[in-house]
Amino acid sequence: MKVTIDAAEAVVRFQEAFAAHDVDAVMAAMATDCAFEDTAPPDGCRHIGQTAVRAAWTALFEASPEGAFETEECFTAGNRVVVRWRYVFAGGHVRGVDLFTVRDGLVTEKLAYVKG
Question: Do residues 55 and 47 touch, judged by C-beta distance below 8 A?
Fold first, then answer.
């Protein structure tokens, strides 16, 4: 019997791993063909595949070990999840939105946008 994880549950699992800065758990929550678009100006940088996405998370956690996301709002539309967040780091914070796509209980895409 196949256990189905809905999109919201998949993103919660991802977020819990992310909050713990646990790169292995974050990557276990992502598909092998995952993609992540960061918030680097002007259009973000797209990281494709487990190796590239892992490197992006590792760099973020090393650059901001005290950084923490606070979810302000979250809603699901089919296999898409929208999370409005506040990221707190040494010396300040930014606010933004993540657009997640989920397939078979794993995050396949995370597109990040920040107010600036």
Answer: yes
pTM: 0.91
DSSP string, 25-76: HHHHTEEEEEEEE---TTT--EEESHHHHHHHHHHHHHH-TT-EEEEEEEEE
Q: What is the pLDDT of residues 5-28, one digit of tens each?
A: 699 999 999 999 999 999 999 999
Helix (H, G, I), strand (E, B) or coil at 6: coil
Strand partners, 92: 89
Question: Exposed e or buried b for every residue in 53-63, given b needs 16+ CB within 10 A?
Answer: bbebbeebbee
Q: Which CATH architecture has domain 7-114?
A: Roll (3.10)
